[in-house]
Amino acid sequence: MQLMRTLRHLFATSWGTRRRFTPAVLEQIEAAIRDVESRHAGEIRFAVETAFDLPELWHEVSPRQRALQVFGHLGVWDTELNAGVLIYVLMADTDVEIVADRGIAARVPDADWQVVCKEMEAQFRSGDFAAGAVIGVQRIGALLARHFPHSGGDRDELPNQPVLL
């Protein structure tokens, strides 16, 4: 267990997360998701977690491992075309993870997701959470539009509202 990481997680507060992801920012994210989903057959979920609890830190759970758990918990895998994508933000580590369902993962290389993650993380580190989140949603939307174009009969299978865990 790393001491500095543990301290960051112990002192991170949900108040700090809500201060950065205000209702107005959450509405911007939801609007961006709704907008980009009108141009492709994929589904995007956005989840923000403030910090890990002590057991997760003790077992050295990585942000990626937690993102996979959240992917399953939120049912992002449960879409007709296996075209769900989770954007997971871990505030205490300033880490962004993107988890794509198997239909998308087979078509979009991991390097493309990493570019989006790094861009979002840079925006978050500079304090611009709204721009970082919206840019991330737009970049993912562009990737999905390229690989899963809108077919006209697509329906919105997952909620567009961001989730604060």
Key traits:
four-stranded mixed beta sheet, 165 residues, Diaminopimelate Epimerase, Chain A, domain 1, alpha/beta, globular
Please, could you describe this protein's structure?
The protein is α/β, with parallel strands linked by helices and 165 residues long. The chain has one domain (3-164): Roll (Diaminopimelate Epimerase, Chain A, domain 1). Helix content is 52%, strand content 13%. It is built from 8 helices and 4 strands; from the N terminus they run H-H-H-E-H-H-E-E-H-H-H-E. It has helices spanning 3-11, 14-20, 23-37, 54-58, 63-73, 102-105, 110-125, 129-147, and strands at 43-49, 84-90, 95-100, 163-164. A 4-stranded mixed sheet has the order 3-2-1-4, with helices on both faces. A hairpin with a 4-residue loop joins strand 2 and strand 3 (95-100). Helix 3 (23-37) runs parallel beside helix 8. It is globular and about 50 Å long. The model has no long low-confidence stretch (mean pLDDT 94).
